[in-house]
Every structure is written in structure tokens, then in C-alpha cells.
């Protein structure tokens, strides 16, 4: 049951073949058994059982089941849930509890979802391996010696290991998609503004989006349909009409589909196994009637540089609020107000967070703003124009999710630049704000997952998920090691 999709589970729940409480207990048992894997930071055991029993009672009494009736979900620990811990995997917020629900939490709850707990992550969503958590790294379900990706590594690992059916993550530069590729699940980043950010702890506000991790494209479409839509609490949320994503997924055909394949995504730095698996899957789609179109996206390597200028600048501003005065960690050794600010931030933040705050402060400083920040904004606009032009000629842009398979825990921690390059293929979609996802398409020579990265035009999430469903369907899945 733990590896099935909600698309398969829902009819069984509504027919009374299995109860919500039975489903929840299966997942809670697995979570308890895999507690050493460090995937969950908090488990809502009693609350989940109580919620499941209430939903079973509602169904027996003839109540109308919500669109997500009985769906067991996990939440990344940077999304607010009233009364629950909200740590962002940081010492800075250890012990803090949220005082309100994020908009997405309220919408999911109203449609009868069940929350099992909150998952581990890179501290304040800054990282590509889940090694930056103050509470220790998460293990990849396919090989416990390897990373699950990041920063939503706990959410991706929870879905892959059968510790929930669907999980929420957040994606700034690939933080849903890259771990999805490493953990053999579907990971969707919607169009910027498609989902309200109210209740999501800010990293880089003009990039951050809440995303979905699941076993199937249809499950992602269903959850997206519940969460999407404008929100008066978030001025950046879009009023663009919310589609019937499930119908759109079912309506996508491979025949005649134009798939843009950028040559820049298949360069010398790409792992040969990753290249082989992705190109083989594209060739299979060509044989089914799709058209592979060679496209060029010049200066793609500039995206990662512009991204790290922009997101560190925004992070330095957003994280200024954590000063030990109002909430969060407060240094015991402070002697006055000034030292309290300095010592609390020095002791409360981890090395990667401090590195990005310093970089962001530098690029925003007098004399460097025009050279770095303003130039990066110009590069961002150029990329938006180039991707719009490319997607006027093709239906989707396809390539690898990551330049390499999941790497060993500790293998890249000494070289921040090499770690940043893990997101080289996911960052462009974040810069332009278009919807993108990772879908599992095969395995390398060591049976490690390989993901394909897909980008569609603004608000074409249904089309994107429909294409992903065709990409994923024939793959013979391997059960994780955990």
C-alpha cells in the first residue's frame, strides 16, 4: 500500500475496502521503523490517527469526502502549520512553533488531507544535498550512503521510502526537482505565483515556490489543483484561472509533441550514464510519435552565476529578522544588544547560511550593487526572453535533472561551488519563473535513479504533468533499499 498512488487508493477508501485509520497506521509504522534515517523531524502520530478516525466517521455518516480524502502527506519543515514546530532545520528556530497555518495547509486540510509530520531539509532551504540540516543529513532511500538531494531531501526521501504518499517541498532553484531526481519520484515546481507563499519561510522571495513530490503525475495534478489560486495574503500569487489539471494530464498525447532538446544541456560535464538514460528515453518517445527538436539556449552557464547573486541578496534581507530579539535562538553569552545580535546569529546559523548572507550583503553593498546585483537582474530578463522564444517553437524543453547521480554523503561538502553546480539544469526555470518538474526515467549502472527535467510555458502545469506521465509510465521501478 505504501508505494501505491492516491489515484489507486482513493476508490478503495470511498468503497470502504480500507479505512483512513488503517492507511495512516501503515505509514506511521513504517515511519517508526525508519526513524534512524532522519527523514522526519516531527511526527504527528496522535493527531494523524485522530484525524483519520474523524474522516472515517464522516464517510460512514454520509458526509461528502474532500478531493484529498484520506491522503497521507508530509510537510517540509519551512511551511507553517498552526501549533506545530517550524524549525527550517536550523538551530536558530529550534523549539519555535508556528502560530498560524500556511494557505496551502488550510486548503489541503479543507479537502480532507492527513498530515503525518514535518520533514528534514537543508537549513533555511539553502543546499543541494540535505547535509546542511542542523539535525543531521537524510539518507537516500536507494543507497543510505548517498544524499537524497536538497533542499527538500526529506520530503523526496519520505515519498520514495513509502513514509507518506505525497509531500510538500519548496523550490527556489531546484529544491523540489533535484531531490525528486535523486529519489526516483515526481517533483513539480509550479509557475511562480501559481501557489500562495503565505506561510512559507522566505529564502529568496522572487524565486520561492511551494511544490509537490509524489509517485505519479496524476497525484501531483490533484494536489496542485487544491493548492493553486490567488490568495489575499500573498500579493505575488496569481489570479490566473486554475485549470482542471487532472483532465489536462489525461488529454496529453505523445504523437506530434515537439520536445526541445538544448545542446547546452548535454555537454562534457554531464555524467555518461545520466546522458545515456535521458537520451534513450527521448528516443523512445520519438519512436512513439514525438518530434525531437534541437534548440540552442546560449550562455546557459550564466544562469547559475546570476542565480547565486540574486538569491543571496534576497536571503541577506529576508534573514535579517532573525536577531535573537523577537523569536528564535538567543545567545547566552551576549552582554549588550549589539553583541546579542552578533552572537545569536553567529551561533544560531550554520556555515552555508552564513556564507550566503555574507555573499548577499556583499553584492548589495555600495560600489558593488551595479556590478553584481543589477547585472544579474539584466541577465534574468535575457533568460526570460530566450525561454519564451524557445517555448514558442516547442511544447516542452527536456534535459537531465542533475549532471550526476546521487553522490556520497560528505563527497562535496568541502567544495561549495561543486555543490552549487548540482542545480545547473534546474536553476534556469527558477530564474524565468516557468513551471518545471523532474520525472524518473531510469537508472544508472549502479541502479541509482536518473531524472529527466521538463520545462513548459507559464501556467501550463497540466500539459507539463501530462508529458511527464508519458515519460514515466513504462519505467520498471526498483524498490528502495530502506
From TrEMBL:
Q: Which residues form the active site?
A: 76 (charge relay system), 151 (charge relay system), 175 (acyl-ester intermediate)
Source taxon at top rank = Bacteria
Q: What does the record give as the reaction this protein catalyses? A: L-glutamyl-tRNA(Gln) + L-glutamine + ATP + H2O = L-glutaminyl-tRNA(Gln) + L-glutamate + ADP + phosphate + H(+)
Stretches assigned to the Amidase domain: 22-465
**GO CC aspect terms:** glutamyl-tRNA(Gln) amidotransferase complex
Q: Does the keyword ATP-binding apply?
A: yes
The Swiss-Prot or TrEMBL record annotates one GO molecular function as: glutaminyl-tRNA synthase (glutamine-hydrolyzing) activity
Enumerate the InterPro entries for this protein.
Answer: Amidase, Amidase_CS, Amidase_dom, AS_sf, GatA
Q: Which GO terms describe its biological process?
A: translation
Question: EC annotation?
Answer: 6.3.5.7
Q: Which UniProt keywords apply?
A: ATP-binding, Ligase, Nucleotide-binding, Protein biosynthesis, Transferase
Quote the HAMAP family the UniProt record gives.
GatA
* Oligomeric and partner information: Heterotrimer of A, B and C subunits.
What is the annotated role of this protein in its UniProt record? Allows the formation of correctly charged Gln-tRNA(Gln) through the transamidation of misacylated Glu-tRNA(Gln) in organisms which lack glutaminyl-tRNA synthetase. The reaction takes place in the presence of glutamine and ATP through an activated gamma-phospho-Glu-tRNA(Gln).
Record's family? Belongs to the amidase family. GatA subfamily.
The identity of this protein, by name, is: Glutamyl-tRNA(Gln) amidotransferase subunit A
